[in-house]
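REQUEST FORM: STRUCTURE PREDICTION
Request ID: SP-0412
Submitted by: Lab K.M.
Chain count: 1
Length (residues): 357
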Amino acid sequence: MSSSKEPVRVGFVGLGNIGHYHADRIVDLAGVDIVGGVDINPDARARFAEKYGVESFESYEDLFTGDVDAVVVTTPNKFHEEYAVAALETGVDVLLEKPLAHSLESAERIAEAARNADSFCMVGFHNRFRNPVEVVKGYQDDGRFGETRHVEANYVRRRGIPGRGSWFTNREIAGGGALIDIGVHAIDLALHFHDFPRVEEVSGTIRSQFGTREDYAYLEMWGDDAQSGEFSVDDSVSAFLRCEGGKTIALEVAWAANRSPDEEFVVRGTEAGACFDKADDSLTLYETGRQGTDHFSDSTIETRHEDPHKAEQRAFFDAVRAGVAPSRNTVEQGLEVQRVIDAIYRSNEEGRAIRLD
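STATUS: Completed
RESULT:
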């Protein structure tokens, strides 16, 4: 824990694109100093050291046992466990990029380490910090929606595979494809709107229809397209979740689909509903009334645009300074999301709904 009068000293594990994405925002945060980075790739270490003016290391021990209060872990999914557990056991607080891990078993080991640690781990579900999401949660807490019964969660790209032949499309390293990459955000946000009820049953179908096609046409990718590389993951998913108390979630996720993109989250309550479009941060409320005469009332909600990653980072570093684990984006919530992901994959393999104990 850093003194409230001293800057929080943060290191990075994983110095690729997403590591730079986080670091570029952290350099603008008051009271936080980037002090080092870790990566097995010497070129990545050199770029990070030059850009941010810090030391970079090949071994995480050199960073964790040094002058550091917290780390941001942005490695490929398979390596989350190694670095997160080591940091927690060293007493270093962790901001861990989603998903929690590449497999349920690995996620459970991270959760166990967090339960036994004096430090804490926060999972990078930054969409919870979007201002329209905060508005929906505020209205829910005020009772405006009545009881939220169903959430439609969509994260569909027309063409958006993040680099064929990269680690994203290698199941051994990533743990899955579209579901574990962007579907994890959709599942987390849907459960967040439901206040994280216990998920009782999951039914899902996964598809891999576009990633290996020679005629795959696209406009842009997150990374380079190496068509000859491995593509052993899903590129679209449909699923249905039954939760305690009769709450339900319908999930549509795709890296690639022959349809228009869709990032809408529809919240349906007994008294009102809402549609949040993540693509442009728009929010519409749907209500009805009988005042005067029966009528529909649709309200457009405008919020100030703020970077949700920065908001997430502020919450993390505030928790580091206070020495108190944050109450949202917890490891236990990340583990529940991972259980759903695992159940969707098992449902597809077994051709039946999966009951969760």
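NOTES: Residues 331-350 form the longest helix (20 residues).
Reviewed by: T.R.
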